[in-house]
Write a structure and sequence with these properties.
The protein contains 7 helices and no strands. With about 110 residues, it is an all-alpha fold.
Length: about 110
């Protein structure tokens, strides 16, 4: 039981134009999250996992567009704060994605040579 469960199902229902709702929406969300987690932990299919994560991140922030007045009736609700923490997840995904695509840190002294 998550405080954002109903919100996530309603969001996926809107994103899928009504094709997914209820248990089916929960199952799709769960499968995506498990797949993303497994790719990050194992390193297998990492690029595919990052592509799926990009779509998931778009879905994570979609409630701000679809349900803004419900999330911010004045002060941010618990659900709005719960979604806002996904900014950290997006930043981590960008670091992992950059590393997976070959980026590396080079000390400043080595760049000058």
């Amino acid at each position: 039981m998550s405080p954002a469960e109903a919100l996530s199902v309603a969001t996926l229902e809107k994103l899928s134009l009504g094709l997914l709702s209820g248990y089916a929406a929960q199952a799709v969300i769960a499968a995506m999250e498990v797949f993303i987690g497994l790719t990050l932990v194992t390193g297998k299919l990492l690029k595919t996992g990052l592509v799926v994560m990009t779509g998931a991140l778009a879905g994570f922030f979609a409630p701000y567009v679809f349900f803004f007045t419900n999330l911010f009736p004045g002060a941010p609700t618990l659900e709005a704060q719960y979604i806002f923490k996904d900014i950290v997840l997006a930043a981590a995904a960008m670091v992992i994605g950059a590393r997976a695509l070959g980026a590396r840190l080079v000390p400043a002294r080595d760049r000058m040579a």
